[in-house]
Amino acid sequence: MICLTNVTRRFGTLTAVDQLNLEVKAGTIFGLVGPDGAGKTTTIRMITGIMSLTSGKISLLGSENIESVKDQIGYVPQKFSLYGDLTVMENIRVIGALYGADNKRVAELGTEILAFTNLLPFKDRLADNLSGGMKQKLALAAGLMHRPKIFFLDEPTTGVDPVSRREFWQMLYRLNKEGTTIFVSTPYMDEAELCTRVAFMSQGRIVASDTPKNLKAAYPFRLLELTAESKSVKSALAKCPIVEVNAFGDHYHLVTEHSPETVPKVEAALQAAGIEGYLLRDIPPTLEDVFVHLAGEGGAACTP
Ligand SMILES: Nc1ncnc2c1ncn2[C@@H]1O[C@H](COP(=O)(O)OP(=O)(O)OP(=O)(O)O)[C@@H](O)[C@H]1O
């Protein structure tokens, strides 16, 4: 459905997207995940035909001529511009008119889509007076006005409160169930967990692409969680066979090799430092652990 082959985009000397290979199958909720500046927006702009490629090839819905399939894609940009002095329904009507639908059809579809996005009770409210979460829902509603087969959303929930984010994702799931393929970029790892397939992007490159479950299963380290009320945990563990220690308040995540000696050595080091009453247990890796590891490797495997 979407296929990128060696896609590169440069801005002067900066390579924003570097030899990207990616395949997205129909029916997927595909998450392009990575920090600010990773190249996510540039990638989406190239796939949707808004920005040209420096080199490489993109095929969308079976065509390399993106113009010819543009009417089958929806796109919600990172900074969606609403008409603040128009109501919710008026904004929807403007978008519908842009797609060339007649007034009656726009009104029907607008009502249906506003109901779908839970915005119908607010149809007469000025867009300027909507909350951040509602504005994002209106952006989503606008992108749906021509019933796209593929829906691209660029960081749609940035700056949106957790409850609205959850509602937003429920809508994406419903859309996906109804047959729409979703391509969403996000800097949030909890949202990456919600995708059926994830590609991690770092410095213009895809460092891994798979289902969240497989990505976590391939994590090569053992993770231990240490709970201890001591300020000297890091120094106490300095001589232990630990790859990395990350602190989260009184919790520490110890990234270790899979070795039977690790736990006894950690316990001995804690005792030697006089740290008592601690709790040490194995925990499964999160996608964030996986991404931090892969980004640190500088972008090894690219599994399209
Ligand atoms: N039009 C442009 N001109 C010059 N540099 C650009 C342009 N667009 C993007 N870049 C640069 O390309 C890199 C990738 O940017 P991009 O916006 O694609 O990243 P991103 O992952 O979407 O991050 P963000 O969430 O911050 O938008 C960044 O270093 C950015 O500054």
TrEMBL record:
The keyword Electron transport does not apply. GO terms for molecular function: ATP binding; ATP hydrolysis activity. This is ABC-2 type transport system ATP-binding protein. Pfam families: ABC_tran (PF00005). CDD domains: ABC_DR_subfamily_A. Keywords: ATP-binding, Nucleotide-binding. It comes from the Bacteria.
